[in-house]
Amino acid sequence: MKLKMVAFLSLSATTFYSQANECGKVTIADMNWNSATVMANVDKFILENGYGCDAELIPGDTMPTGTSMIEKGQPDVAPELWSNSLKDALDKGVAEKRLRYAGKSLVDGGEEGFWVPSYLVKQYPEIATIAGVKKHAKLFEHPEDPDQAAFYSCPAGWNCQISAGNLFRALGLEDSGFTIVDPGSSAGLSGAIAKAYEREEAWFGYYWAPTAVLGKYQMVKVDFGSGVDEAEFVSCTTQADCESPKPTMYPPSPVHTITTEEFASRAPQAYEYFTKRGFTNADMNQLLAWMEDNQADGEEAMYHFLENYPQVWQTWVPQEIADKVKQAL
């Protein structure tokens, strides 16, 4: 009788535990840019093979996905949401117990800045600072005017064109002989970096991470010597009508994994994975460069990541989950 009772209690506890951690069907937003589609595919594979979830990728984009999660509770997971763009709505969703900020999907945040090639810094270490860039302005030849130095800005129409233009003024770059070059497009900007790098020429301009370009080419972010003044950045640097901009480094853009409250409550173990899963910009830059070089999609990049970066992803899950994922690979 005692043995039967122990067995019954043990079975009841197991049943209760598995019900408490029932993952079931999980919908994951597959956003239309490379870093997000890699994350979505990695999440799908780990949830299916490690946690026994029935995971499905559905097309997504920042605003519609965030709005749908708040209003309809679907999808269950947005792997990479640049949360500044709809922060008020997300915070309201959390306050109303509809959503959770699970963790930072890009642990360094989205990174912006003015960059120079690393080989140039090896030659002139002071070029890692804005004072050094200004001192050596003549190195940065303008493609059309030999008497001017070139600063490559954001393409016209992008939000970052405003911040880059205001910082150009705040740092007094025109007084040092620099002129703004509009690259015309994202491809024009990345092409300018690639061309300079292949010829080992000087280059100075705006760029952001994580990107394939910063995975392929070693670039150094120029230190303005100002630190980050977030209030200045929000109230003036990013505003088209900013009259007297002051120097500030770009603050990192928070990039979160968002889940619905329903999913987090229904599948606490799977939810815990999202609280630990995060990519550094250095790792993501390398992944994006690999994708570009191999013309790979999100699923192919997922296999490449899981097979070549076990030291990264195995820290996100318990050992028994990691073993299941390895076996599935």
From TrEMBL:
<feature type="signal peptide">
    <location>
        <begin position="1"/>
        <end position="20"/>
    </location>
</feature>
<dbReference type="InterPro" id="IPR007210">
    <property type="entry name" value="ABC_Gly_betaine_transp_sub-bd"/>
</dbReference>
<feature type="domain" description="ABC-type glycine betaine transport system substrate-binding">
    <location>
        <begin position="25"/>
        <end position="307"/>
    </location>
</feature>
<dbReference type="GO" id="GO:0022857">
    <property type="term" value="F:transmembrane transporter activity"/>
</dbReference>
<dbReference type="GO" id="GO:0043190">
    <property type="term" value="C:ATP-binding cassette (ABC) transporter complex"/>
</dbReference>
<dbReference type="Pfam" id="PF04069">
    <property type="entry name" value="OpuAC"/>
</dbReference>
<keyword id="KW-0732">Signal</keyword>
<protein>
    <submittedName>
        <fullName>ABC transporter substrate-binding protein</fullName>
    </submittedName>
</protein>
